[in-house]
Amino acid sequence: MAKKAASVFVCQNCHAQYPKWAGRCEQCGEWNTLEEEAKTASPRKTTPNSRGAGLKTTRLDGKATPPARLSTSMAELNRVLGSGLVPGSVVLVGGDPGIGKSTLMLQMTCALAREENSVLYISGEEAIDQIRLRARRLELDQDPRALDTLELAASINVNDIATTLEERKNLQVVVIDSIQTMWLESVASAPGSVSQVRSCAFELIRLAKTLGFALILIGHVTKEGALAGPRVLEHMVDAVLYFEGDRGHQFRILRAAKNRFGATDEIGVFAMTDTGLREVPNPSALFLAERHGNIAGSAVFAGLEGTRPILLEVQVLLSAKSGDGAARRAVLGWDSSRLSMILAVLEARCGLKLGSMDVHLNVTGGLKITEPAADLAVAAALISAATGQPTAPNEAYFGEIGLSGEIRQVSQTSLRLKEIAKLGFRQAVIPRHVGNANARARAPEGLNVVETGHLSDLVRRFAPEAS
Ligand code: TYD
Ligand code: MG
To answer: How many domains does the chain have?
Structure first.
């Protein structure tokens, strides 16, 4: 007699399993993540004395050929991937629903098909006609070569997909949109559950590795892992790219969070238009395009994303504290504990008291800055907002601030200075270069470099009469 299928409670965040429901997962500490799933058959037991085939070991010396790459002919995408797709590799493209993942991947597959690569786009979310309509909207249907080469399929059944992939040995790129919709008959839980997502991904990854096609899995996931299922995927794939942006803004940033075949600090910048995503080869100009002259509380930061310098505007708004509680610190695009530190340093070292003010900080364009090099621009925006004095026109900032108020050097000074000059700025406020006096000498022509040693020097720039 067949036993009644038992169920287990599986944490959708970390895949820990429990016999009983609980409010909190003891393993990862998340709340409300346990869901009931049918118990899957346990893997075949191996007898203790069953022997494997043994390994063929080799020495470190010997030739290693770098992986071949399939260029996507989209420079921004290639940059993030590390100059193209690697055959047999698996890339997870994650992001909020509606951010543009399907659009980006359809554009990429068309670009690949145009170069006569054999590409299959499998959608579990949309019917074939919907994909065709999207392609028309993106004006991709005007390319006869892409029309001829790109293959589409609509399916959620991984067994069916596996049969096709095994029959079609010549495929070079396969896109799965999205992994949450995929379904394996042998797994009892619903599509999107962590067990299904894992098992389906495992099977598709196995096929990619054995058949040698590049596999792209689209996954709806927020960076905070709010939609937890696909988080478990991150460990199974070769590269994880996040497609980010504010849906209210047109900018979209593709960021590598993990990449076995390239750098993880590269970003690709795109703009969502009526006809799909456009690459943005010069993001600085775009990020600064909506800047309204020089108002108090704004400063331009010369940042670095991967190998690329990018200028951004940091905006600060101060207002009298509302209510009795602690002052508000609303931060968009930056680290709020870093803001607290700078506020504390401004108060302790420069006597600028902002503790009773609500602070709103915003990095324009929807970009998130992670570099401490933004400290100086943030401080400038804060001091400017506090004194009501705008930063000098055509002035940009970069530098890290230490706890004693000293301004510390950051990497890639000349690259940042070059970008500042390229965008028509006349002055750069940067850290004082100890033992490296030629920063100024190396500055591009026409750019005035102001070296600043301490935060109080910066404060003095805004209120010269106070000193
Ligand atoms: P989509 O690629 O479907 O997002 P995802 O796959 O990440 O869920 O993008 C959907 C959004 O993009 C939708 O709100 C409409 C917008 N969009 C454009 O603005 N222009 C376009 O050409 C296309 C195809 C979509
Ligand atoms: Mg989609």
So the answer is: 3
Task: Give the pair of three-digit tokens for residue 359.
Answer: 């602070």
**What is the rounded CA–CA span in Å between residue 226 and residue 15?**
15
297 in contact with ligand 1, CB cutoff 6 A: no
Contact 384, 296 (CB under 8 A): yes
What lies within 8 Å, CB to CB, of 403 at 6+ separation is 341, 345
pTM of the full predicted structure? 0.77
Taking the CB of residue 72, how many other CB atoms lie within 10 A of it? 22
Q: Are residues 111 and 175 in the same domain?
A: yes
d(CA 347, CA 354): 7
Residues 19 and 96 in one domain: no
Q: Ligand 2 is a single-atom ion; what residues have CB below 5 A from it?
A: 102
HEC string of 353-394 equals CCCCEEEEEEEHHHCCCCCHHHHHHHHHHHHHHHHCCCCCCC
Residues in the chain: 467
> Distance (Å, rounded) from C-alpha 91 to C-alpha 204?
12
Q: In the numeric block, which tokens belong to residue 465?
A: 């009469």
pLDDT in tens, 297-346: 999 999 988 778 889 999 999 998 887 888 889 999 899 999 999 999 99
Could you report the per-residue pLDDT of 72-112, keeping only the tens digit for each? 889 999 989 988 999 999 999 998 888 999 999 999 999 99
95 Cβ inside 6 Å of ligand 1? yes
Task: State which residues form the domain around 429.
Answer: 286-462
**Domain assignment of residue 55, yes or no:** no
CB atoms within 10 A of CB 393: 10
Q: Report how far ligand 1's centroid is from the alpha carbon of 159 (Å).
A: 29
Domain boundary among 246, 280, 314: 280
Residue nearest to atom 25 of ligand 1 (CA): 276
